[in-house]
Amino acid sequence: MAPYGAYRDNQAWVITMRQLSGLHHVTAIADDPQRNVDFYLHTLGLRLVKQTVNFDAPDVYHLYYGDEAGSPGTILTFFPWPGAPRGRRGAGQVTTTSFSVPEGALGWWKRHLERLGVRVGEVRTRSGEDALSLYDPDGLAVELVARPGTDPRPPWERGPIPAEHAIRGLHSVTLTETGYEKTAELLTGRLGFRLAEEGGDRFRFALADGSPSTMVDVICSPEAPQGLVAAGTVHHVAWRTPDDSQQVSWREDLVDAGLNVTPIIDRQYFHSIYFREPGGVLFEIATDPPGFAIDEPLMELGRRLRLPPWLEPRREEIERHLPPLKVPDPYEEIERAGGEASG
Ligand code: ZN
267 C-alpha to center of ligand 1: Å? Predict the structure, then answer.
């Protein structure tokens, strides 16, 4: 394997055998699962690519949304917990999850979201990008970001949003921290990010070329209240690693750096390690393979409840406890967002 990562440790450059390739997924908490499906599928136009359960608490769904195949870097997942209390956005959390949309699409999106009664802000420009903030039905802060130049990732062609406006995948996440130095040190040290931009209390770190899905913004907010993880907040953010051998190397290196890292956990669609960064945000490093087509064909993704082999013997009991979920077949019955909002 060719060495291709590097970080500075004291005065010396350390060359490593691996580099993170960007965001893998973001996982958040929701309340009602059907309302969650309706919003992310119909309103934002993501595809439900997997319907499974929280492997650590199988009485709760785990719903994965993304592009057609659920490619790493396009994925937002939820644990929908009916009746869950509302959380609080604050320090030690991912406080905004941003998606990339084509340049010039935000006017359409604002009209589309307002027409559907979504709580939405004004389009504003920051770091040379236009951003539109909105809140999902549980109050989760989401942003649509249009940056000059083309995001080469294809939209989900069969989704309800016209392809010229549709979401291309994740753009970035924003972390809120009461102090940012130690987080910055980990990001630009072992994790291999570079400081791409800073202004006021906001710092942008990027991997590689800083294209959409390779960025993390850190807001330093000493007065921010501690975040409370429950409905409407993010649980963790996952970064991509291309294979299992690099993940083993990541784990060794992060343990060596004094971080408390979990063993490698089989998440069926990827393999994961978790650790808290110094500001308190739960980070995950997840492998690209095997992906969502491991247990159902591409055209069937997300239509039926899928369980990992070790939970399959408990299917009957698990299904009995889960609320029923209505998911349209995107290859037949999906309703397209029409011309009312365009122009
Ligand atoms: Zn995860």
Answer: 8
The alpha carbon of 339 and the centre of ligand 1 are apart by a number of angstroms equal to 36
Q: Domain total for the chain? A: 1
> What distance in angstroms lies between residue 7's CA and the mean position of ligand 1's atoms?
25
Distance CA 245, CA 282 (A): 22
Buried b (16+ CB within 10 A) or exposed e, 258-269: ebebeebeebbb
Containing structural domain, residue 305: 4-341
Cα 212 to Cα 97: distance, rounded to the nearest angstrom:
12
Protein residues with C-beta less than 5 angstroms from the ion ligand 1: 27, 238, 284
User: Which tens digits make up the pLDDT trace of 56-89?
Assistant: 999 999 999 999 999 999 999 999 999 999 999 9
Between the CA of 114 and the centroid of ligand 1 the distance, in Å, is 31
CATH number at residue 44: 3.10.180.10
Give the distance (Å) from ligand 1 centre to CA of residue 272.
7
Q: Map residue 45 onto helix, strand or coil.
A: coil
pLDDT over 60 at 2, yes or no: no
Which is more confidently placed, 246 or 150?
Answer: 246
Q: What is the pLDDT of residue 15?
A: 72
